[in-house]
Automatic annotation (TrEMBL):
Transmembrane segments: none annotated. Keywords: Lyase. InterPro entries: Aromatic_Lyase, Fumarase/histidase_N, L-Aspartase-like. Coiled coil: none annotated. The keyword Lyase applies. PANTHER family: HISTIDINE AMMONIA-LYASE. It comes from the Bacteria. The lineage of its organism: Bacteria, Bacillati, Actinomycetota, Actinomycetes, Streptosporangiales. SUPFAM superfamilies: L-aspartase-like (SSF48557). Gene3D superfamilies: Fumarase/aspartase (Central domain), Fumarase/aspartase (N-terminal domain). This is Aromatic amino acid lyase. It holds the Pfam family Lyase_aromatic. One of its GO terms (molecular function) is ammonia-lyase activity.
Length: 450
């Protein structure tokens, strides 16, 4: 069970609700109700309640909201998987519980029921630029109104339930869609999965260190205290604990071993910063307007620039740690480091696991492509009123896509290191070896914390 209170939602909990199908429950509607009361009592122009949207902000319109939902329920490309849509519902529900939106609080238990009974909106991949997931949330709103069908996957052993319905009023429309919940959901899922994978990477490195007799001297506590980056220290401490501390074969090893704590630790630090940034927004009242203190505050809290910048940094850091993995993989192919035949073959002239280098370099090339920053671009739309975009949506989407190639790079290293520690068999197809290495990564329980 994930308790939603508008304050304590984590990336791990978003993932558990989305993929583990954990039920959600609501702690209290008090803050949402207080904002709704404020919104009901205000008079005068309020964006989205008595005016149009975007460039139409100065146009007085009576009850414009439902038209907003119908006009913005657009998307393109393939449908996203139901688990990601469910994560979006969890994030938006938690944000609304934080208060400030002005939405009718009676809709929030309906959203919780949708999550718990396997209903998700049919949202598509494209349609946001980091200033609000308008297309995805407008589509969700029309599902609540009964104008679009929900996608339904009944959870195992749970009672059947009717499709969630709620008669959203005009004033509920903008409060419902004024959020980057889909972007944050993707970012949260990516942060959680990458945290597990970066932890598993230390286990893989330990196998390679052992296979080539790499020195543990660079991991010493004294070295880390001289340059106290938290991630570096955590990685070094974890790896020290995994090694047998035998006599090193060389005075200094290549960077893939000697600088592992520094490079991998930087990725751990980047991911920690991104996770903290995402979790702030998971629990933020990023509403425009924000109803607080008996007033409506028009603002730009919906803009996801902090998330885009943080996730850009993570993707860049992943390339660095993957590059060191391929460097260790190259060392595992070299008799000078392993004392075995080239490519860990069973006899001279055989190819052994040479092909793993091709696979790893292919996956690394994909990671490099995905690391291109999104925050160097922008967009100007809506007659120039919306004159900047952070593209956090694309940053989060690319971070999700990084999981597979990083996993493949590490699996190649693990498969080679495992072979180096055993008696190399005759040449054979390596697909099963690689899949076994990938499964070992995904079942690792190593978690790195500062």
């Amino acid at each position: 069970m994930v308790l939603l209170d508008g304050a304590g939602l984590t990336c791990a909990q978003v993932h558990e609700a989305a993929y583990g199908r954990a039920r959600v429950s609501i702690a209290s509607l008090d803050r949402a109700r207080a904002a709704w009361v404020t919104a009901q009592e205000l008079t005068g122009p309020v964006y989205g309640r008595s005016t149009g949207f975007g460039a139409n902000k100065d146009v007085t319109i009576e009850a414009p909201g439902l038209d907003l939902l119908r006009s913005h329920a657009c998307g393109a490309g393939p449908p996203i998987e139901p688990a990601r849509a469910r994560a979006m519902l969890v994030v938006r529900l938690n944000q609304l519980l934080a208060g400030g939106s002005g939405i009718d609080p009676a809709v929030l238990p309906v959203l919780a029921d949708a999550v718990n009974h396997g209903f998700t909106p049919p949202i598509r991949t494209y349609g946001a630029i980091g200033t609000g997931d308008l297309t995805a949330l407008a589509t969700t709103a029309l599902c609540l109104l009964g104008e679009l069908p929900w996608h339904h996957e009944a959870p195992p052993a749970r009672e059947a339930a009717p499709a969630p319905r709620y008669p959203l009023a005009s004033g509920d429309a903008l409060p419902f869609v004024s959020s980057g919940a889909a972007t944050l959901a993707d970012a949260a899922i990516a942060c959680h999965r990458l945290r597990l994978l970066l932890g598993a990477a230390v286990d893989v490195a330990a196998l390679s260190f052992t296979a080539v007799g790499a020195s543990a001297e660079p991991l010493a506590a004294a070295v880390q205290e001289a340059r106290p980056h938290p991630g570096q220290a955590a990685v070094a401490a974890r790896l020290r604990g995994l090694l047998a501390r035998e006599q090193a074969a060389r005075i200094q090893d290549p960077y893939g071993f000697r600088a592992f704590a520094q490079v991998h630790g930087a990725a751990v630090d980047a991911l920690a910063r991104a996770t903290a940034t995402v979790e702030i927004d998971l629990n933020a009242a990023a509403e425009n307007p924000l109803f607080a203190g008996a007033l409506a505050w028009h603002n730009g809290n919906f803009h996801a620039a902090p998330v885009a910048l943080a996730v850009d940094a993570v993707r860049t850091a992943l390339v660095q740690t993957a590059q060191l993995s391929t460097a260790r993989l190259a060392a595992l192919m070299d008799p000078a480091y392993t004392g075995r035949h080239p490519f860990l073959a069973d006899r001279p002239g055989a190819s052994g696991v040479l092909i793993l280098e091709y696979v790893a370099q292919d996956a690394l090339a994909e990671l490099r492509h995905l690391a291109n920053p999104v925050t160097t671009g922008t967009a100007v739309i809506s007659l120039g009123v919306e004159d900047h975009a952070g593209f956090a949506t694309q940053a989060a989407r690319h971070a999700l896509r990084c999981v597979e190639p990083l996993e493949l790079v590490l699996a190649c290293e693990r498969a080679a290191a495992t072979r180096a520690l055993d008696n190399p068999p005759p040449d054979r197809p390596l697909t099963d070896d690689l899949e076994e290495a990938r499964r070992a990564l995904t079942t690792s329980t190593t978690h790195l914390t500062h």
